[in-house]
Amino acid sequence: MNAPAYNFAYLDEQTKRMVRRAILKAIAIPGYQVPFASREMPMPQGWGTGGVQVTAAIIGPDDVLKVIDQGSDDTTNAVSIRNFFVKTAGVKTTTSTAAASIVQTRHRIPERPLTEDQVLVFQVPIPEPLRFLEPRETETRRMHALSEYGLMHVKLYEDISRYGQISTSYAYPVKVDGRYVMDPSPTPKFDNPKMNDCAALQLFGAGREKRIYAIPPYTRVASLDFEDHPFEPRWAPGTCALCGATDSFLDEIITDDRGSRMFVCSDTDHCEIRREAAASTPQAVIAGRSTAPNPQSSSADDHEVDSGFRPEAGPGMTGRR
Amino acid sequence: MSDIKNSASTVDDTPLLQAEGLSKWYGRQLGCRDVSFDLFPGEVMAVVGESGSGKTTLLQLLSAQIAPSTGRVCYRMRDGASRDLASLGDAERRFLFRTDWGYVHQDPALGLRMAVSAGANVGERLMAVGWRHYGRIRSAAQEWLDRVEIARARIDDPPATYSGGMRQRLQIARNLVTNPRLVFMDEPTGGLDVSVQARLLDLIRGLVAELGLAVVIVTHDLAVARLLSHRVMVMKDGAVIETGLTDQVLDDPREPYTQLLVSSILPV
What does the alpha-carbon distance between residue B24 and residue A267 come to, in Å, rounded to a whole number? Predict the structure, then answer.
């Protein structure tokens, strides 16, 4: 063995070239899943090995990396991936969306609009949008090749016939540049409109499934829907208890075992910036307000089910659209 | 009246489906040998024979699901041009299969999506050809459930909750929703009890007459052939041994094997 013990950003240069070739092909064919020889990474599959390999292939010494997990900079997954690149590449890291040149994400797109100088890297568990409708890989590939996407609408039809609306609330299928149907990874459908005509390059890596796909900057990304049931982004009908935001994607946090709950921004950086801005302007009174326990919201326990948030949630939840 | 007759006769002059010298070998095992026939629009042809006589192989050859070892199948497209199925691209063939053709399996589980609702099963072909209006898809599905005598209230139930006869009727609705011109049926009444069979046959006969479908129906049940078909083709050991009008073949069989088949029907 005469291979060097250390290489910048963990992967050896040949592997990076292979991943970059897959990325280039993915950019050239927007939404198309390019197979690549996914490597073993020093973390379990399912922890973002696909995203880590894409980031490792594109990162340079001057890059500034931000890693988020469900919008948050300080969860285990985000912290360990950030530490991984600090250790193996010595790059600067940040929690600020504006300061980052590469944002690796699991399940969210930052609230702040991205710029042309930024790359968004998604960690993808299951890249195939047709997987649960058609189990055969040979068949799904042929369906992509021939643009046979009727089956995707069968799923949406089922949603409407069961729940009266398209209840798919995350991993909502999109059509990229009018050609390939793509799974935007399990991001909430609230984030789907941000993918459309986005200034930043969006890369998707699925480590276990060995696929890379991409949305080049300023590409048309349309969420699938019916003419009489158009796509609607949804989010919790509430106000962030920390910063008072009503237009950001909110996480619901249960605060005790008696039904108390509060909503907070899922994007922690966005929330912090808003709180700092509010603190410097004394007139802003909403900051720090907490939501009182709400006796009528006990029936809203099914927030976790796929049918999305219920618009008729109880009083005290303002900012409903 | 004469106009209708004239236009009908000009259309019927050319066959919808032509098989020429079809043979299929599975390695050294013979599937079927040297089958030729013409099928005209609105015509129902039954292929009868015992198990292993090559009926299903023939049906798969005709519907381009497997490629013949020799011979060819030509289909007259909607534009009137007759095309060799082997010369069609993958996309064209699959499109044909979704729109202009139907294929009714013996086991409805093969032809249906058992986990999605009946309405979505019927609507799938419509969505595949670009329908994007939920209300219209649903009303088309409802109309077809009515036609195959499935209660409207069952539209949101998955076929897994249906009885065997209902599943088979649903499969027929799913196939006919795009107004196909040619339907392949592989033992559509197999595995159903006699009263359900009778009702299904009645339904198929009504729809075939109403829609002017051309049908190739494979069956081992001569009663099905007699009820539905205009012509009968008898197969044995992969070859066609006798062919003719249904009453002629069934009432006055020429070949010893056909005579045996006809005499094997159990009297009630």
Answer: 63
